[in-house]
Amino acid sequence: MHIRSARLIPYSLPLRQQWQSSMGGFCERKGWLIELSCNNGAKGYGDCAPLQVAGTEPPEVAKQWLKEQLSATEGKSPSELLRRYTAEISQTPAACFALETALLDLIGQSEQVTLRHWVNAKATDHVLVNAVIGTLNDSVGKRAFRKIEQGFMTLKLKVGVKSPQDELAQLHGLAQQLPEKIRLRLDANRAWNLRDAEYFIDGIRGLPIDSLEEPLREPDLKLLAKLQNRADCSLALDESLAQFHIDRLLAHPPVKRFILKPMVIGSLLSTKKLAESAANASVECVVTTTVDSAVGVLATAQLAAAIPASKHLSHGLATSEWLAEDIAEPLAITNGQMIIPDTHGLGIGPITTA
């Protein structure tokens, strides 16, 4: 099997409402769909959706890299190409993620196995997911209970948007209404100085908090370790992971959890290796999207299902509902679980932009 042609298909997907965080917000997701066509009729797809605020390359850099690489794919086998791009992940992660996904899609189809089972023969067929309910405001209770009624057990909130005092007051009010076993996952996106982080962590003590992501504006390993010792929930690193050497992080983990975004890391396979290394260091890993298209979400879900150590955790994959439009049918979510198709390769349905 060899690649006969390659296409780069642009898309622009409006959100139903603005995605907000302490780092700002966005109202649409722009990117490119990679389509690789083989001599046997198979097609492989990958999603390149750069998001600089999350840690990817700029869109223009991703586009240029993809144009250069796709022009050189003709006549090559997917397996041969897969071995070629690992060295460029750090410079163009969103682009590398897309190309790797498309290649793995083709390889899985050729070997008649799902992408997740190609990555790990013991992969599961479903993953737990958290619901994303935005920021703390007057309607947060309604949004929370709507998701609880749909079967979600973990609800994710963006914090650090208002003052710590205001957000703590709203959190306590929300927590008092929640049914037993419902957990809140909080993401501060590096909003606070040390004093505010300590104040907030003290303020959520005793609440049903699953984890708190990125509490420090200027992450420091020693300070993060002190905050983790102070907290009664897991602290997590997400966008700050890239600024520390991973071996140093794993030698003396400052927090209990890592948030892994394949679109930002640049590779499904590298993300899996990182998750395995983290598990060996007793660090939990949650896999999340960057509010990607259906192709990107499915690729990330395939990976989450291939990480057995994380099967008890809810992953950040339920982001498709934030999009008013998509390039393919999103995966169904039932009772807080995302069911992953058994189709060989990536398993994406008909593409609407092609």
TrEMBL record:
SUPFAM superfamilies: Enolase C-terminal domain-like, Enolase N-terminal domain-like
Residue span(s) of domain Mandelate racemase/muconate lactonizing enzyme C-terminal: 138-234
Pfam families linked: MR_MLE_C (PF13378)
Protein name in UniProt: O-succinylbenzoate synthase
Matches recorded under PANTHER family: O-SUCCINYLBENZOATE SYNTHASE, O-SUCCINYLBENZOATE SYNTHASE-RELATED
Listed GO MF terms: catalytic activity; metal ion binding
Source organism of this protein record: endosymbiont of Lamellibrachia luymesi
Keywords: Metal-binding
One biological process term in Gene Ontology: amino acid catabolic process
